[in-house]
Design goal:
Length: about 300
Amino acid sequence: MRGAEFAELQAFAAVVERASFARAADALGLTPSALSQTIRQLEARLGVRLLNRTTRSVAPTEAGLRLHERIAPLFYEIREAVSEAASSSGRTAGTLRINTVSLAARSLIAPRLGRFHAAHPDVALDLVVDDALSDIVAGRLDAGIRFGARLEQDMYAVRLTPDMTLSALAAPAYLARCGEPATPADLHRHACLNWRFPGSGRIYRWQMASADDALELAVSGPLIANHQDLMMAAALQGLGILYAFDDGEIAAAVASGALRRILPGWSLTSPGLHLYYSNRRHPRPALRAFIDCLLDRDPSAG
């Protein structure tokens, strides 16, 4: 295979896996127009349309899907072979592709990016922030980060955080205007901020538990969103009551007085964040280094 043909197929695989010309161009170090021209050259050479394009989306045709299914494992094997060759020389190198929920991206990964790059400058992180349940094997990803209750089957998991608690919170301005609910049933008379699951589109029903009881509520309010930053901004601006994982950002808002925890005694404990990868493969050196960094673990100790 000539170099140009290999580059065309690599470009095609990148577009399919990222469902975006812009994101694929960024990953390949190309301009979107250059990438689009490469795809057109590939389609012209094969004599078949491989991608359906609109102004807002891109998806493989039936022929494109069949081609991607055949070539994607080959590119994955090439990437693995290159990584193993680099690691045999004592270097941790290559591209590490991680799919992660936004909470992990914000609270675990972002604060450690500088430290990881300083320790492993030859590793390029390709991070996809996605709160939907993505198939990391089909997507040729090295690993994913999810809550323990939502892990995929046939995966090896590494716990990153303790169990996490969902808490109800509201801004003092909202509570001054609307009062404070005394029981979960009172939430039906309040403005609540709702989470929509990416992928399925289903709206989360608030699951709450006390020492003696457990319940599930369908609430309503002025905002439905599938991004935690929007939910947090709405709560801070007094639009309604937020039900969210009690992470560092929430704790900081409570400590500053910007939010108040309400309905004491009613919350839900959920399995914490886990990093998972296929149990059919040994983790690459870059992935082991990334796990060590997320756990603040010194690989040279012990």
